[in-house]
Amino acid sequence: MEIDETIAATIVANIKGVLRHEINLFDTHGTVIASTDAARIGQYHEAAAIAAASRCSVVVDDDHPYRGARNGINSPVLIDGSVAAVIGVTGERKSVESFGDVIVKMTEILLHENIEQTARYNRRILETNLINQLIGVHQDTELIRYLSAALEWDMHARHCVAIGRLVHENGDVVLLQQRHLQRIDDAIYTADADECCLMLGPSHNVEDTLRALAERFADDGAHIVFGVGEPTDDLPRLPHCYRHARLALDWQRFSGGERIVHADRLDYGLLLPSMQPDRMAQFVERVFCGLDEATIERHRGTFEAYTRFNGSIIHAARSLFIHKNTMQNHLNAIAKDTGYNPRILHDYAVLDMAFRVHDYLRFAGVAPRDADGRGMEEQ
């Protein structure tokens, strides 16, 4: 196996930190690939080559010299039954011979960690490539088949796409901890600093899995929300399911509430994002007639209280700490300013939609129309 130069340098540095002797790491041909004596890197070491070939430790002293070698002991390091490298410690035979087993064990541990880290990294690359293929507009079936086989991922099973996003509260910057995602069986994922995309297999109860995942993130002080697409066993439908999961996630970020939003349970969340922004702005302008934001917000407080108490003026007034007659005056003001009376069912529905569309445009970064009705700009 080839050992990365950085990993090799880390190994010799870690061992020297324990043993306080010069340490050398060799490849299976006897070449120094890392050393605490930088001048020796790249040199040939006959004793190391013999240790690799014989799979036995080779001691170097004045009575047993070898080309390119200094006094010390050189021991082969086996990984899965094969010689992966040779580790050597420089010094007089009496003082270093007892270190043979120690340095081999330390090197094996460090190499295993490197192998596992590399395997995890390679798997992450494969999973990212597979998910990008699955959710992309132009799927490459052969590549999907190859990546699925490499990952032992069942491309014919029923899968569900879920997109998670960290919510940064109080301006705190929290990075997405991928270790939580790695603990999910029967799933593949891709992730960046604050968002992840999971492909959950048929063994999962999606709701339970995502709630448990959210709780693990919460233990780290991070708040994560999810948008979930419809499950499918039809690969060509996965891009569609991904778009719906993205739609559900965006709607959660707009509306708040449940931290897990399923696309197949959306109502307004299906309608508003599909509308043309210029038409939405035109509708808001039509209902609110150029009212300024302060007036709209004042009317919103009245309207929301009226809605929350199912049209009960008495209870709505109490919630706002005002007299019922004042509440009636506020409702009348809405009717006067907009031409829509919230106490008339048809007008109530128009106002309800207008407030929702107004908020969604603001969330989407679309500037409101001017009071004189001139166009809109995207911020």
TrEMBL record:
Family in the record: Belongs to the CdaR family.
Segments forming domain CdaR GGDEF-like: 142-250
Annotated InterPro entries: CdaR-like_regulators (IPR051448), CdaR_GGDEF (IPR041522), Diacid_rec (IPR008599), PucR_C-HTH_dom (IPR025736), PucR_C-HTH_sf (IPR042070)
One Pfam family this sequence matches: GGDEF_2
Name the record gives this protein: Putative sugar diacid recognition
Top-rank taxon, per record: Bacteria
Annotated PucR C-terminal helix-turn-helix domain residues: 302-357
Domain Putative sugar diacid recognition: 3-133
